Protein 1
Amino acid sequence: MSDDRVVLVTGGNRGIGRAIAARFVANGDKVAVTARSGEGPEGTLTVRADVTDAASVDAAFTEVEEKLGPVTVVVANAGITKDTLLLRMTEDDFDSVVDTNLGGTFRVVKRASKGMLKARWGRVVLISSVVGLYGSAGQINYASSKAGLVGFARSLTRELGGRGITANVVAPGFIETEMTAELPEEKKAEYKKAIPAGRYASADEVAGVVAWLASDDAAYISGAVIPVDGGLGMGH
Ligand code: NDP
């Protein structure tokens, strides 16, 4: 089954999602990415989707199914931050982050599960963050949404684990992308000091772990949280 896989990565036009999509292309898989803007890496099919909108997610899956076949590997990667301290955080700051990061995962994985159930095989990988379990001042919305993914993957494992489907969480630490480029320099230096590895990671270091979770070697791993954080969360 896993010889002719169709992989869908949300937010595959840049950052971590783009590196993940490129890794699956290099593995010889058929790969689609969702993007609101831009394009996925070479060798991918780009489809437009906003993960906050169920109809848009449904249309994207339909297009991928028509062009490549049913999706059996899904990587829920699209995510946003709107950082500020609790007292300054508006309802919209909270809702929009949770609706994109956790609600978006719900919409995407729900739609993907149809094809996986039919195939009796599937791989679900959710991109969380070290801060989901570590906590982070100024990120109550983001950390809540990322912690929610752990309960999501574990419940999904209990629902679909008997149908050849695994669901796991990857929790990256600090990765060199546009998201972290926005951080002030002194914050970046402070974070680096706290990371036992003493450096940030490349997006490709996350991609390798995602590809492994989707491989046959990881068939008996489900409901796990795999940190890719240079030791920052100490394995959580
Ligand atoms: P980027 O900001 O570089 O990319 C975010 C991606 O998400 C873009 O492709 C963006 O699409 C997409 N996206 C955002 N909102 C939506 C939406 N409503 N619908 C569809 N797509 C959307 O982020 P990173 O690559 O850094 O992060 C990717 C994931 O990894 C995120 O979930 C993030 O939380 C997580 N992560 C990142 C870390 C880091 O250090 N960078 C650390 C830990 C976790 P568009 O370009 O069209 O806006």
Protein 2
Amino acid sequence: MSAVNIGAVGVGATKGDSAGTSVADGADVPRAAGLRPVEELRALAASGAEELHEASAEQIVRWVADNFAVQRTAVACSMADAVLPHLVSSVTPGVDVLFLDTGYHFVETYATRDEVARTLDVRVVDVKPLQTVAEQDAEFGAELFARDPNLCCARRKVEPLHRALAGYELWFTGVRREEAPTRTATRFVAFDEKNGLVKVNPLAAWTFDQVIDYASAHAVPMNLLLGNGYPSIGCEPCTRPVAPGEDPRSGRWAGLAKTECGLHL
Ligand code: SF4
């Protein structure tokens, strides 16, 4: 149970085995030393996808534990709930949980992050953008999220995650097919070509009720906003509550055509 920060240096440097290169904006990121070749990971993803296409979430996590070292595995978590970190750490204790600390989160989200670090057998890694909010404001003007949310997400979410993932062979996400039309084809296991590692979505077939049931059964930390009209939680300026029966993700970037931050496209 611990927490670390990742700023402008890749996560592998924190573990002592990375080139530790400071990443220039938009530049590609060197993979950490000791990772298996991309071709080997791509083949593993293909065999996992075939083997696990009807597997349970628990079976998927166990397949990962059998084929990947915990030090090479990361769990992405938005801190809306801690179901995925709980599920993964129950099989692979000590796993890294990546939290994209955009600088724009609700206080309830930071509180959930702290609760996860305190109660689960994981290492929470705060993944930070290259610029603080103040530095971004100075370069692009205040409230970039209101004028160009795609650029804001690219700088505060997509680039930092890409940099952090260079230290791993596999990442877990909590993406579920029912969340949005853009997610209906989500596979349990795939090779993530954009980031160069295996991507595993063990909750892809779960409903929102299954998430809540798992959280209740295991006393998993949950973001207080979930029970207050926020079924989908992102950065505070880009998230509003939704009415009962509304599309759960309609509160994200409300009024804009944007529906995804770019992490899962
Ligand atoms: Fe910026 Fe909004 Fe994207 Fe957060 S969700 S990174 S504030 S545009």
